[in-house]
Amino acid sequence: MPGKTFALSVLSPHPIFVLKALTHTPGIVSQGAESLGISPKWFLSLPDPGLQLLQLHLSTFFSLQETNEDKLYKIANELLLTEKAYVSRLHLLDKVFYLKLMEEANSKTSFPAEVVNKIFSNISSIYTFHSQFVLPELETRMNLWNTTPQIGDILQKLAPFLKMYGEYVRNFEKAMELVKTWMDRSLQFKAIVEDIQKQEACGNLTLQHHMLEPIQRVPRYELLLKDYLKKLPQDSSDRKDTEKSLEIISTAATHSNAAIRIMEKMKILIDVYEMLGGEEEDIVNPSNELIKEGQILKLAARNSSSQERYLFLLNNMLLYCVPKFSLVGTRYTVRTKIGIEGMQVNETHNKDYPNTFQVSGKERILELQASSEQDKEEWIKVRVEHPHCCILFSLISPTPKTAELGRRAPRWIRDNEVTLCMKCKEPFNALTRRRHHCRACGYVVCWKCSEYKATLAYDSNKLSKVCKDCYVIITGKTDSEEKEEKKRKGVMETEAAEVSENSVICDFLHYLEKATKPWHKVWGVLPKNDAMVLYLYGAPQDVKALTTIPLLGYAIDENPRGVDVPYAFKLTQSRFIYVFATDSEEQKQRWLHIINMAVKGETATEMDLLDEAKSKNQCYITETLHNFLDGIIP
């Protein structure tokens, strides 16, 4: 090596003794040490005066005496060595991956050749440029280094051709997506890629990893050239060419560095995408950026119980997720997406649950509990650290702004925070005045104060239960207009949930429409405001009744003949016949008691209503149990 020969000749008039000392006996070592002006005792004091240890100490000694010319040579030689390794990687991409995939694409219909071309872009041109021009030029120059110790002129001549990397860099992001897509879509594509990846030349690295190397190569040129320029004397003939080369290469490196950053961001987003089970495709987008993620506890809106949740905060959305059982790593299911625009983060104070804060978005409000005060501070101050995340901070306002009603999800007042209806001020109880939430303002109100419905923008314009005040503000209608509209609406269009909440009786019934047809389950309701009409719905949440039966004048047969199911009864009037059955004798008697009054034109007394109210809890349990069993046993 020219650099080492130069160093040896400076340090010793007899460098041959040093070379012999690397391979021979302690006597020769002493002689070589003396030729270097170093005490032989120092060498002889070493544990092993053999080749390996002596090489280590001598190389350390020489490095301390390394000249500037040596350093320039080392940089140039490193450029050559890394270029050789790089060309071998380009050969792998162009002559192995690309060639094998193109052969398959052209011979069969497993995947189109166009896809392969889009993945590898202009890799063939890049490989040709480096293997036939850059590498041979560097090899020739390093062989002539003793007479021509410079590389700036070579790079200045070749640097303009690095513009070809622009096409590869611009296509890189799309290429990564195509590789992922076709690895999932085509078994043959996947098999070819995985087979090549097992080869020794691949070094146990993936195709994507090798495709990143051309992106990383230009910044590597820039770093080596900057180091070379620092060591280059001001009056060197190679300086001007080196500076021009560096200017061109730095421009190309800027684009490559940007692509590397995009790749790193995309890798993070792909990891998130996989943790979400591959169901949130809009996450893997170049414009997205993961800002923060972490475990959190969510406090229930009604009773402050806490549930384990996980948050992913991106620059344009907050993903509120629940853990999902999986045998292949951590997985989550997205429960809610909250847009960043207009989001508010409020610090809250809960004596029973420390470290709480509230996230309020147009879609939903979440009250969350961090694991520590520090974790809480990191979440609520994330905007300071990440200016792209436009979260607004505000104090908690117990009263929603009028302009935001229906447009932003409200903070629900917890059930245990109030004992009176927040509108009519009547006390709640478990039987006749239960708690309900207005979906617009979040207040806890009774059924009477929440019998209105309005479309809410934050909930995809769905018709939702609201209190009277919110109804008037959102719709612009008065209470009298609402009542008039209800009168105009046909009885068949009355929702099951609406009449069930204010009913004399409501429960499941088995209904036999015709003797030739099978029994089917219906939801029966007798509303308080129409207590002589039986409404039949397909399910408790249906928005329209299947049919209505005006009960006045009907005859009741408590034990109809020819009906082979227990707890049956029949209603008849002229040519109209309705056969029903219940699940128990007690349930049958309750229905018969109320229907008996209705067919006579009588209304239920307060005592009847109280008895029925007591049974509504059982009715609710029955409904829940039926729904549960329907979900398990189709």
From TrEMBL:
The keyword Repressor does not apply. It is found in: Cell projection; Cytoplasm, Cytoskeleton. Residues 71-259 form the DH domain. Transmembrane segments: none annotated. Its main location: other. Gene3D superfamilies: Dbl homology (DH) domain, Pleckstrin-homology domain (PH domain)/Phosphotyrosine-binding domain (PTB), Zinc/RING finger domain, C3HC4 (zinc finger). Residues 289-388, 502-600 form the PH domain. CDD domains: FYVE_FGD1_2_4, PH2_FGD1-4, RhoGEF. It comes from the Eukaryota. Pfam families: FYVE (PF01363), PH (PF00169), RhoGEF (PF00621), SOS1_NGEF_PH (PF22697). Residues 415-475 form the FYVE-type domain. GO terms for molecular function: guanyl-nucleotide exchange factor activity; zinc ion binding. InterPro entries: DBL_dom_sf, DH_dom, FGD1-4_PH2, FYVE_RhoGEF_PH, PH-like_dom_sf, PH_domain, SOS1_NGEF_PH, Znf_FYVE. Keywords: Cell projection, Cytoplasm, Cytoskeleton, Guanine-nucleotide releasing factor, Metal-binding, Phosphoprotein, Repeat, Zinc, Zinc-finger. One of its GO terms (biological process) is filopodium assembly. One of its GO terms (cellular component) is cytoplasm. PANTHER family: FACIOGENITAL DYSPLASIA PROTEIN, FYVE, RHOGEF AND PH DOMAIN-CONTAINING PROTEIN 4. This is FYVE, RhoGEF and PH domain containing 4b. It comes from Callorhinchus milii (Ghost shark). The gene is LOC103179401.
